[in-house]
Amino acid sequence: FDPRHYRGTHCYGWPKTGPHRLRFLLESVKDLRETLQKKGSTLVVRKGKPEDVVHDLITQLGSVTAVVFHEEVREIL
Prior knowledge:
Layout: H1 19-38, H2 50-61
InterPro entries: Crypto/Photolyase_N_sf (IPR036155), Cryptochrome/DNA_photolyase_1 (IPR002081), DNA_photolyase_N (IPR006050), Rossmann-like_a/b/a_fold (IPR014729)
GO molecular function: damaged DNA binding; deoxyribodipyrimidine photo-lyase activity; FAD binding
Pfam families: DNA_photolyase
């Protein structure tokens, strides 16, 4: 979870992530983790800037051969 997505405003003073969206995201992540665990896997969840968290995970794991990510689409106003 990137803290930058959960503070400040996006447009017109509306919060980037309100309480209902945050609850939905947390419940979705919890459900995904439980589903993966039933299949013998797991889900790594971290809080922080992705550029820092991913670097730390790669360093910790040591044998990473690929990293896949997506970038949030930004509106052009």
